[in-house]
What does this fold into?
Amino acid sequence: LGVEQDYVKAHECYRKYIEYFPNEHYGYNNLGNLYLEGKGCEVDYKKAFEYFTEGVKRGSSYSKYHLAEMHFEGQYVNKDIDKGMMYLQQAMDENMVGAYLYYVSLLMKGKYVEKDEDKAFEVLKKAIDADSNNRAFKELIERVKNGDFGSELEDIYRAYDFSKKLVEEKTYLADDLVELRDYYFDTFTDRVRPSVAVEDLCS
It folds into this structure.
């Protein structure tokens, strides 16, 4: 938007926001982010944890997601997988897309949880359904391209078929669906093509 990033100024603005709106989570979560990432300051996990904790008290699903990460990684607090999963589940229960995608990553890697590609695919579908933009859908495309759900045709089919159905409700995803369609055709040119054309769904 033509506005130069000034994280030091952002600290000041979020502090004022908290001063004027102490019962809202927005300022706490964003200050926590700045301290977590060391933007406009040195990385300070203690302060990040404190601000995210206040954000959780005020109902922030984003703060729950960040506390989950901090417990998983042992940032400021002792590593605690159970508590990390507790916060992550709470964030997902509130349809926090970032939490869904983080869980997908854990499931695909088998990190902190048992590796489960089928479950990861189902969680990713929930993320797409909860998403107000196409962030989760793009992740589906990239993971299909990378063969993350296996190289068998049925794995591509289930991603593709789900995507077709999704477009009926979310037409703004049409461009990304065409990208997935093109990948499908380029990769399996010797296979039988789906009977329903993407363009028919998107028109």
The chain has a mean pLDDT of 80.
